[in-house]
């Protein structure tokens, strides 16, 4: 698993423990950490306290299919950095490359990706902006062959109780994207670095 992740992401990976327990979620990975491309074992890009999935094997004469109903990620942390030159850390190189088909007789299908209690740190050094997103809960559901759906909710400012809810559906056949956004107690002045070109100054304002 470590070799596969490192090959696909071009980043160093460590795993605390991995085991199989059919009564507790199937395959369970504890304390996975993915490091920055240019700083292995120093700067964390992505980490998760637990990842679990229970694959279903469907054999046939022509190929072997692994069906994964859901991948569950608990207490994940992601650091997104835009440096002073405008480059993102997750794009150096791209976080995931297009997988090579090493064995066409083996396929894997994942129907759902679920995240509980996530944390995201965003830093834009070009604009001098920082933001922490806490209590991120969401899921991505694939509805073959037509569409996939995304649902997410998070808090961007615990002191002001700023909450976001996002729902989106993408149709794979028509390329139509439908989305809905809901937010509460959004303080516009937090985004001053991106509003410098306005003809007026925003000192205190909220949107819901």
Question: How would you characterize the overall build of this protein?
Answer:
The protein has 208 residues and is mainly beta. 4% of the residues lie in helices and 56% in strands. It is built from one helix and 14 strands, in the order αββββββββββββββ. It has one helix spanning 2-9, and strands at residues 13-21, 26-35, 44-53, 56-59, 64-68, 71-82, 106-110, 112-124, 129-143, 147-157, 162-171, 177-184, 186-187, 206-207. The strands form three sheets. The protein has a nine-stranded mixed sheet with strand order 1-2-3-6-8-9-10-11-12, with helices on one face. β9 and β10 form a beta hairpin. The longest helix is centred in the N-terminal third of the chain and has 8 residues, at 2-9. 6% of the residues are buried. The mean pLDDT is 89.
Fold topology:
Elements: H1 2-9, E1 13-21, E2 26-35, E3 44-53, E4 56-59, E5 64-68, E6 71-82, E7 106-110, E8 112-124, E9 129-143, E10 147-157, E11 162-171, E12 177-184, E13 186-187, E14 206-207
Parallel strand pairs: 5-7, 6-8
Antiparallel strand pairs: 1-2, 2-3, 3-6, 4-5, 8-9, 9-10, 10-11, 11-12, 13-14
Euclidean distance between termini CA atoms = 44 Å
Q: What do the pLDDT scores average to?
A: 89
Q: Which class do the helix and strand fractions yield?
A: mainly beta
Give the SSE string.
HEEEEEEEEEEEEEE
H/I helix tally? 1
What spatial order of strands do you see in the largest sheet?
A: 1-2-3-6-8-9-10-11-12
The residue fraction in helices comes out at under 10%
Please indicate the percent range of residues in DSSP E strands (runs of 2 or more).
over 45%
**Rg computed from alpha carbons, rounded to a whole number of angstroms:** 20 Å
Morphology call: globular
Beta strands, count? 14
User: What are the low-pLDDT stretches, counting only 5+ consecutive residues below 50?
Assistant: none
* Biggest sheet architecture: 9 strands, mixed
